[in-house]
Amino acid sequence: MFDVVMDSLPAAVASALAEADSENADWPALWRALTAVSVELQSLLVTQPGPELVSLVEGIVTQLADGVAGTGRHRVELAELTHRVLDTHARACAATPPDPVRLADWLLDLQLHHPDAPEVGLARYARALDDEGLAHYRDRAVELFTPLPVIGFGETGRYDRARWALLRVMEELAEYTEDVDLQLLVLSKDLSSGWHYLQVATVLRDAGRGDEALDWIDRGVHATGGRGAAPRLIDLAVEEHLRRGAPHRAVAVCREAFLIRPNLDLYLKARALVVHTDEWPPLRAELVEHLVRDGSRLAIEVYRRIVEVELARRGVQEQELVVEWLQQLRGLQPDAFADYLEHIKSRHVADRQLLDELSRRGL
């Protein structure tokens, strides 16, 4: 009796799929025939569990997965039915575990040869795979995934069907096993933007691997040239150094990033870290001198914003320094300087000390 079923159910699926894309196909009738196969497999799970049933369901899953890839009209319905039959397969394997290595190979091949197949869900196969099958699944997946080329910074992702299928396998495997190294292997294959560097660094930080996280942060900041995700990368580095009780390294990160691409946020970060120490005056002088040497439009804009920030401090020392910086800015931007100076004077008209100092310096 079971031998008859072994032949009749695959034949019914093959017949329905062969007609499915035909112009004159009676899809409702074909769909009833296909769902009847799914129902019959579920019944056999109760009445005829065993290795033969596992093999039968595997064959039908493969047929349906081929149908999903080959049809244009009924892809959604067939994909949903494939998922249902795959669930029956998982239950059949739980009831009668097959050879774990063979099962691991079948699960991998299903996904790699059918990128549109439903997600396997390793948790459903935990008992059947056991440690031996899972180890084989992992080793083979890693062996296939490792040679894939890394998508470098600024490059467009090359997600062909094969790469996409492998990526899906690895992501699910990393999540199921909670293996940080697997997660990092997946993330580090796509470094097309600074946000990908940030993902890698965050995973490493959360895993307690701070040294590696800092290395990836440094790589990310240099790759981005201080743009995009760079501020978040720098924040992560500063947090990690402060957590370690190394504020001098946090300052160094801000300094190095400022020299790559000056901006006000980095200046303020560095200032907040050391403003009440003897380190701040020489560091401030270095940062401002860098802006003077740069002389670019971006540097001048940052220079102006720093002047505004320091003016807001209202301290005598800050104001004296601001006046010195204004003198330097006059040399950097002589044509626009007069209007900018008048703007400052009008905003601080009540600050007689500042206005007197400007006048004394010939400004």
Structure description:
The protein is mostly helical. The chain has 3 domains: 1-96, no CATH class; 198-291, Serine Threonine Protein Phosphatase 5, Tetratricopeptide repeat (Alpha Horseshoe), CATH 1.25.40; 295-363, no CATH class. It has helices spanning 2-20, 27-47, 51-70, 75-95, 100-113, 126-145, 161-177, 180-187, 194-206, 210-224, 230-243, 247-260, 264-274, 280-294, 297-313, 316-332, 334-347, 352-360. The protein starts with a helix and ends with a helix.
List keywords for this structure.
Serine Threonine Protein Phosphatase 5, Tetratricopeptide repeat; 18 helices; 0% strand
Distance between the termini: 103 Å
> Sheet with the most strands?
none
Average predicted local confidence, pLDDT: 88
Name the overall outline: elongated
- Helical percent range? over 70%
Q: Please trace the helix and strand order, writing H or E for each element.
A: HHHHHHHHHHHHHHHHHH
Global Rg = 33 Å
The number of distinct structural domains comes to 3
- Strand portion: under 5%
Total strand segments: 0
- Can you count the helices? 18
What structural category do the secondary elements indicate? mainly alpha
Low-pLDDT runs of 5+ residues are none
